[in-house]
Amino acid sequence: MTSTAELTATWAEATDLVVRSDVMAVVVTILLIATWAAAGAIRVRAAVPGAPPRTCLAAAPRLMLDLPGRPGRQTGGANATAGLGAAASSVSLLVLGSGAAGALTLLLTRGHVPPGFSAVGAASAVALLAATVSGVVVRQAHQSKEATGRWLTSRGPHLGLAALVGELALAGSVAAAALALGHTEGVEISGLEVFAAATVARLLTLLRHPAGGAGVADAVLAGLLLGIGSSAALAVGTVVLWRVGMLAGWAASSLMARLTTPLENVVAQTLEPSGSALGELLHRSAFQIVAALPDPLARRTRRLVFQAMFSGSDDPWQYDTMPYEVRKRSFLVASVPPGARTILEVGCAEGHNLRAWGEAHPGARVVGLDISARAVATARLRASHLPNVSVFESDLSGAVATLTRAGASGIDVVVLAEVLYYLGRPHDVRRQLEPLAGVLAPDCLVVLLHPAADAKALHAAAFAALGAHAETSTVMLDDARPVVLETGRRT
């Protein structure tokens, strides 16, 4: 058992080591402060692209540590940020969980198995860690399903990328601190192994409330550093620098919070889409990768993705609450002329457009198709008061059979709104839409609505697949996210 005298001596040695590191200790402390602040700030910016830099820095600790907001600062926008902390924490846990499992595997393969542990026991510990992380993520998502689901569906990929970049930077800064102290001590230490140890320790900070998790994380980081061959003074000194950086960044953020607009107010005032170029690129790239998979696997993957999205929220794209979506819906609904007999929307989601057409065209039959069973159930409920609206679960591969069974052939209006980019590249769009032409009337009106870049890349392929020639093109000029609505006619 370690005596009090030994502990005191270790602390004294660690303090002396930090002091002797002189300029390097100051530099790595500044690096740690900046990394803590930046890692949190990019999470906030990823979630709320319209947030000013000062607001991002002020709210950073809450997204880094899943802390509740300060009661005195919350306003009517508090509901808008409900679940953001849980969503950010869940994404961070998933990133760190896989990272920590890999880090522990690295340490074990390099011979750093704790005394008394067999390789099987160590592997079991890794598996237990992965199971624990998964359980915590599921519990957090369940506790705040609706609010968390909205953030994950609307900003999940952005939060994931921000978490990955932030955690890599944070672990790297801890490794820099250990290497600096090791240089002063005159010993060599593996930066990669310190990086792995920091990843495991950071994960433990989020597994419980920070008040308890931070202490456990500190002990684990020190223990792992000792396990990879560092001295007790170096291990303690690294932990101290890590926590000094976090606390200093936290203090600066808290001070800034008193001088800037609270995040809740920013979210409440920024209820429009971000138009993030990076976000659009990530979104499109992910589904282009899915489209490159074998067709059965691609269809199954899309179905799972959209089932997960609608499991988190009945309105993941905020069609009911976002003014932009209301404007876009009015723009789209007005594109269908009077006298339409059968209106088909492919990818109808939760049925907002179907309900609008059903009410605007009571003499027409309105049919919706969607790949998600949960979305179909929600759409049916939303349009349950409209006898002329029907909704079916189907992807494009089964669309013709589904529509034929429903007696919905000879369709004279078909609408695809913000759905083509989920199908992949132009050749994927054409291949998957071509069978649908068999249930369209000879003079069917084809209505396509997508952001300008997607319209330019994909609308021609869609018209060609459905045997239509483009007739009109209209831009919904909008500061938030302009979209292009094009119509074409089969001849």
UniProtKB/TrEMBL annotation:
UniProt superkingdom: Bacteria
GO biological process: methylation
Family annotation (Pfam families): Methyltransf_12
Domain Methyltransferase type: 344-445
Entry's transmembrane regions: 23-44, 80-104, 116-138, 159-183, 219-242
Keyword terms of this UniProt record: Membrane, Methyltransferase, S-adenosyl-L-methionine, Transferase, Transmembrane, Transmembrane helix
Molecular function terms from GO: methyltransferase activity
Residues of the signal peptide: none
Protein name: Methyltransferase
Species of provenance: Intrasporangium calvum
